[in-house]
Structure formats: C-alpha cells, structure tokens
Amino acid sequence: MSWSSPIKNRAELAVSEMHDHLLQVLEEGLRAADPRLAVKRFVSREGDEVRVGDERAVVRGLIHAVGFGKASREMARGLLEALGDIAGGVVISPEGDGSIGPIKVLKGDHPVPRENTLRSSRELLNYLEREVKENDIVFVLISGGGSALFEVPAPGVTLDDIAFVTRELLRRGADIVELNAVRKHLSSVKGGQLLRYIRARRVFSLIISDVVEDRLDTIASGPTAPDETTYRDAYEVLVRRGLWSEVPPGVRKRIEDGLKGLAPETVKPGDPILNKVRNIIVASNTVSLEAMSRKARELGYEPIILSPYVVGEAREVGKVLAAVIKSVRRLGYPAKPPLAILAGGETTVTVRGDGVGGRNQELCLSIAIEISGLDNVVAGCMGSDGIDGVSPAAGAIVDGGLASEAMARGLNPREYLDRNDSYTFFSKLGRAIITGYTGTNVNDLFTALVR
Amino acid sequence: MSWSSPIKNRAELAVSEMHDHLLQVLEEGLRAADPRLAVKRFVSREGDEVRVGDERAVVRGLIHAVGFGKASREMARGLLEALGDIAGGVVISPEGDGSIGPIKVLKGDHPVPRENTLRSSRELLNYLEREVKENDIVFVLISGGGSALFEVPAPGVTLDDIAFVTRELLRRGADIVELNAVRKHLSSVKGGQLLRYIRARRVFSLIISDVVEDRLDTIASGPTAPDETTYRDAYEVLVRRGLWSEVPPGVRKRIEDGLKGLAPETVKPGDPILNKVRNIIVASNTVSLEAMSRKARELGYEPIILSPYVVGEAREVGKVLAAVIKSVRRLGYPAKPPLAILAGGETTVTVRGDGVGGRNQELCLSIAIEISGLDNVVAGCMGSDGIDGVSPAAGAIVDGGLASEAMARGLNPREYLDRNDSYTFFSKLGRAIITGYTGTNVNDLFTALVR
C-alpha cells in the first residue's frame, strides 16, 4: 500500500473539496492501520533501551521477533526499521516468502489451518525454545488471521479434529465466545499458552486488532493473553450444542483429562507468567478513528466519534448513520456543522439478491437513499483491508445528490440495494473506492462530513 | 395522563437511582409532548395581545379554534386555558364527546375516514365560513390522525374513491410521498386548501408532529401548509403504479380536470394566502428530546442528542445504539460519562415470530443482549403514545445485568427476540413500562444513561 495514494481512483472520486476532504480522512484511517507504520509508532531504540509505548526495557541480551497473521511480514519490517538490530525470529504469513532481514517468513494456511500452519508453527516454537534466553526481549507480532496461521493442537488432538469441532459448532449456532472456549482447550498455544514457550523475562505483544471491541483473548485466539474459560466451559458448550457424543476420541480425551486436572489449563488471569508480557494494541479501529478525528479537525471539521463498535445489518446501520447526518445538518444535533461524524466496526449483509457488493458499499447505498436532497454532506465507508464483500472495491463515497444523479441515469438505488448489487451501482457512477488489498485489517471505517 | 406518575408501574421499575433517573428523563419527554401543556407553552394572552411563540397579534375581533387529530380535544383545552376567552370553534377527535368550553368536539373516523369524518369536517368548514370575520384570529389545532379525522373530498370524488386509491397504492408499494401527491389532489382541504375557507387575516396552526422529520406538508396532510406536488405528479404516480386505468370515474375526472387547469391546485409555496398563516410545531420528537436533554443535565448527566430521525429495523437500531453506549462506557466516545444518550424516531419490526411485542421493546431487548455485562448503564425506549406494537406496554427499561438475570430465570433473551416476544420477556422480568394511552404522539423516545 503506497502512502502517496492508497486509493487508486482518487482523482475520479475527488469531485469537490468536501469529497477530497473525506478521502483524506479515510486515508488517514488506513495509514494508522498500516502494520509497518503502526509498529514504528510504538517502538523505538535509544542506546541500550528499547521503548515500547510508555514502557522501557533495558537490552541485556538479544532481541527476537516472532509473529503470525496477515500483517506479520510488514509488522516485522516495521520492527526491524524501528530497532535496527534484531537477533532473529520467525513470522508466519499466508505468503511466506523468504525473510525480513534476520527474521524468517514462513507460510501458514488461512482460513483453515493445515500442514503449512502446523509445520511453520512448530518451527516458530522450536526457534523460541532453542534461541531465546532469560535476559532476551521477545516481540510477538499478532494480527488478523493469526488464529489459523499459528496453531499447534494439544497432544492427542489433530488439526482435523479442531476443524471438525469448529465446523459443527458453527453449524449448530455457537457464537465466537463458545467457539473459543472449546478451541483454546484443544490447543497448545492459544489462550496465553504461547507464553510457556518463551523463556525471556520481557515479552511485548504488538497487536493489530481485527476484532470488533478489541478483546485480547479473542484476537488470534489470545496466544499471549489470559483466558477466563475452563475445560468445564468447553465441555458445557459441547453438551449444550449437542456435539459431545460425536466429538473425535482425541478431543473427548483432552477435555476429560482437563476436567480431571490431568491436562494443563489455558493461562488464567492472575497467573504469574503474565507478569512478563505486555499486550499492546498498535492498530485497531479505535486507533484509526482517533487518527481520522485529528485529520478531520485539521481540515476544519469538529470530529465526533460515535463508536468503533458498530455492528448490525448494513442497510439498517446506514439508516441510523443517515439519521445522525440529517440531524446534524438540520438541527445541529449531536453537534453543529462543520462536523465530521466518525464510526467503525463491522456490519453484516443478509444476501437476498444475486448482485455484486459488500457491506460497506451496501451501507453507503442505504445512506445515499436516506440523505437524498441534502446539500453539504459527503459520506464514505470502506473496509480497511481494501476488500468489500465479493467486490473488487473497498467501499464507496456518496453525497446528497447521488440518488437523483443515479435516477437521471436510469439507475434506481433501491433496486440495486434490493439485489445486493451495490458495487455495480457505485462502479457505474464512478463512486466505488478502489485500493486493492491493503495488507492490514482493523475492520470498517465510516466518515461523514457535514458543513 | 397524570403528571404525578404517567408511568403506572414506576415503583416496580425504579430499582436503582439510575433507573429512577432514566424514568424521570423519559417522563420529561412525555410531558413535553402533552397536548394541553404544549399549547400552553406557546400561547398566552396579555391585554389585547395574543402571543404565540415569538409572534404577537393584536386582538381586533374574535378568537376561534378549529382542529382535528387524536390530541385535538386536549389541545383545545390548553388553548382555552391559555387565552381564557375564545368565541367558539369545532375540533374533531376520535371520541367526539360534547365540548371544551365554547368549542364543540365532534366525532371523526380513524384510521379510515367515513361518514363521521365527512359530517364533522363539513360542520367545521361551515363554522369557519359562517362565524369567522377578517379581523378575527383563528387557531388550527393539528395532531396525529388528523388526515383521517378531517377530510372533505374534492367535488365528484367520494370517500370510497379515496379509500380505494389509498389501499391500491399501498398494495403496489407506493411510498408516503407518492400517496400524498395523489390524495391531496382528491381533497378539498388537504395541501393548504383549508386556508381558503378561513377569512381571517391571522391564522396560527399549532401542530403536534407525529411524523419523523416533521414535514409540515405531511403532518395531517398539511391542511395549512404549502404543497409542492401537482396534478401532473398525482397522474404520474397513478400511471407508474399501474393504477390509472382502474381509478374510479370521479378520480379520473378530477385529475384530468386538474391537468387541464379546470380544477383548483393545492396551495403552492409562494401563494399569498400563506402570508396569513404561521405553522408552529408545539410538540415533536425533537421538542421532547430537548426537554429530556435539560432534565438529564439537571440530574447530572451531560446530554447528547444523536438524532430525532432514527428509523430502521428495531433490533438492528438497537445494536447501533448499544455500540454507542459501549463506546461511551469504555472509551469516552462520543463523550465521557456521566452521559445521557438521547434519540428518537420510529423503528419498524419485521415480524417473524408469533410473540407479543412492539418496536420499542424489541429495540430494548436487542440492547439488553448487546450491553450484557456492562455496569453503570441503563437504557429505555418507549412509544410516546403509550402503545408499543400489539402489547399493553409503552416500552421497556434495561441494564447490563438484565440478560444474565433473565438467563438465571430460564428466559433466553435471544429466543424471545427471535419470536418477536419482547413484551412477554419484559413483563416476566417486571421491566415493561406501562402508561396506557397517553393521548399524544411524537413517535418513540430513547434514552441511555451511562456513568
């Protein structure tokens, strides 16, 4: 992702000063989520001290870097640039090509962990056990996809067992909390257990959150974070979801052993092993919204962050955001223009039609319909990973004139929305935001500017 | 509605100080929407001057009051109390019993206008034509339901014709804008035309808005407000919706005459007849939110009005409001606690289950699920008319502990939500807000308090 123009069709989209401002604000959100830059913002070296955010650590031994996730490669690059000198390490990425300086980049599988993930994860653990000494400093670089790219099943459990249990639980309506309670207890590394392989007394986990609400125990299944769930919880989920009688023998044995205290628990809050680790979120939806907020102010718009936790059906969320836009424009609530309304999260789309689109573009299309006729309003929404649903776009940009412009060209916005065909709509009107894959993910970013 | 306790089960609901505060804020919203009090806030008499909001009018002749809508009776009572002396008038209400001082209260039909509406509307027009002189002042009291309670079809058109066209347009997916374009051109009084029956040079329309976004041309079909739509628009809607070939002969003739300039148009913006009227919204969702906002501040919560224009599927809107609540609580965005988050509008429910509930309670149930586990948060939502969907409640009140309290009692919130059974859920937990019919309607009122 190039910072001169992460949005490839920028010139086409910047049809007015307000549109240009909106693009600048969205770009700032992407920049804040850039893995290399995010790591460099938090880490620096001064003499024999390493600074990580507000923390300092005296370098008494070597510095190592391990990591996993779609952004691990670029995070490793940022860390190397920030520190200048790293002894070595292993990071696992979906591509896995070669190395970043002394750090090996290995290939893992995504979204379902298979042989690559297993082989690379073992090599990562071997590196830690072989190379890391007590006085060393270890950086763990964690980003989205890390849960699949890094996994070593518990003894007696196979990747196929985990895949089976995951699939069946999802099919029976288990939520992410239930799913994680089970999966962490079938793993040797999730739920804080990676820490048991790290001999060093100082561990910094630098985390890019792709999970709405940024729960440390959820991002990449929390390999360096405490886990509150127990074997008892895992067992109860399997029973409640009617899966207990069907689980593979290795899974059954692991859980039964755990219930009897014969298998190690995940790392619980208060465990002294946690004293050596600092989990630091270096990029997240909130971090991006805060950066966007500063940029908006710089451009002359008072910023208001509604929430980085927005979820729900995209077209309905769009209606609520449009209600806020209209209220600002007509009544000065929640605040008077010039105002930048910022929000983030991850909406969903219940697909009913056969069109080409994504949640961000569907949200924008809903807004375009709702704000039709309103002047001095521009709104945009995009996936920070650059990929919106099944479309080649990242999102879209709309204003109060778009719906009638579309109608005049024979494109009925409601019909495109009904068909879930938001990308076709926006690409015909030249309003789809195109970035390509950005190499990061902090979920979706929304901005509306109101004058 | 008694102002000592509009919420009948107040004692049961006020389980903590925050709950009590929330109820006080909601009650303040109801109070601001009270028809009698709303009129009295805007109108007063000093000597030979009548004050209406910022306007003054010297009383040179008599003062008359006409009106229609579910709240017209109480509005008339408020007007009489404010002015002390009114020559006479006619208001049309669904009950229509007797009189308020010198003002006759006649019966109209709702939601479909029939003989009562026709007879009472003619009597209202007769009163105006017979009693009102140029130097008199006329108050027109307009509230929700006015469109059905007050109607005189255009010459040659019958109420049955209008009912047929309305039903068929709705069945074919016409929206409210299309519907009104047609109906106003089949009426002798809608779309500003009532003004043609009023000889007086000073007319004050006092309006309680039950329409989201408060469009004067939409509330009660805008009998004293300009109408931008034309016979051409009405014709095009009927053609576009495939109804033109089927309309009754009277409707066809009226529209055809209109297209040829042989039938009077509705009152257009800029028409000099509008100079004599001031349309004043005395109660609305916004007015209530502003009152609630003052009460919240008084109770120690900084208020933020998100929007009075919120629409969308109730459970999805609930997720967005919950996202804001969580953001305030954890991050201090959009503002730090203690905070009162206020919003209004009218959500919808797509009914899939066979439960008993309403949009306000469904929204609350969605919030209860989303904020589960969060402390120092209370939220509530209610219909200002006191009637939420098909339930006997007005709305509900929730907090971060409710979902687990429910689970502990064997009530799974998600299952109740799936069945659209929100009232059953809340009544079992003693959290349904019960007011009975409040006699007013400014749509739905939402508040969350966060400490």
Structure summary, number of beta strands of chain A = 16
**Greatest interface and its residue counts?**
A-B, 27 and 28 residues
Largest sheet of chain A: 7 strands, mixed
Multimeric status of the protein: homodimer
Give the neighbour order of strands across the main sheet of chain A: 6-7-5-4-8-9-10
* Architecture (CATH level 2) name of the largest domain in chain A: 3-Layer(aba) Sandwich
Which class do the helix and strand fractions of chain A yield?
Answer: alpha/beta
CATH class of the largest domain in chain A: Alpha Beta
The whole-angstrom Rg of chain A is 23 Å
Please estimate the helix content of chain A.
25-40%
Distance between the termini of chain A: 31 Å
The total number of structural domains of chain A is: 2
Under CATH, the topology of the largest domain in chain A can be stated as: glycerate kinase, domain 1
Uncertain runs of chain A with pLDDT below 50, 5 residues or more?
none
Please, what is the average pLDDT of chain A?
Answer: 96
Q: What is the 3D form of chain A? A: globular
* Separate helix tally of chain A: 16
CATH superfamily of the largest domain in chain A: MOFRL domain
Strand content of chain A: 15-25%
Brief overview:
Two copies of one chain form a homodimer. The first copy, chain A, has 451 residues and is of the alpha/beta class. The first copy, chain A, folds into two domains: 10-33 and 285-450, 3-Layer(aba) Sandwich (glycerate kinase, domain 1), CATH 3.40.1480; 35-152 and 187-229 and 266-283, Glycerate kinase, MOFRL-like N-terminal domain (Rossmann fold), CATH 3.40.50.10180.
